[in-house]
Amino acid sequence: MHTHYKTYYPYSSPFDPCEPIHEKTFSTPPHLYIDYQPPNLPQFSPMEALKAGTLWKPLYDPYFNSYEKAKGGLAR
């Protein structure tokens, strides 16, 4: 099982002048988890594809950073 969000724990020095961030999260794109392009993938309509940046629905990633909530987006 994979997730599109990964977490890592950077080193925090006791001498850092700022409050340390103990956990950081980043997003990985969906195409990393598809070995090859299978036939008959579901597609967006041409207008939706222009907005999404991809023709194929399984490759769409509506990236939202960790400080904002997902505000809708295109349906998968």
From TrEMBL:
It comes from the Bacteria. InterPro entries: Spore_coat_CotJA (IPR020256). This is CotJA protein. It comes from Neobacillus massiliamazoniensis.
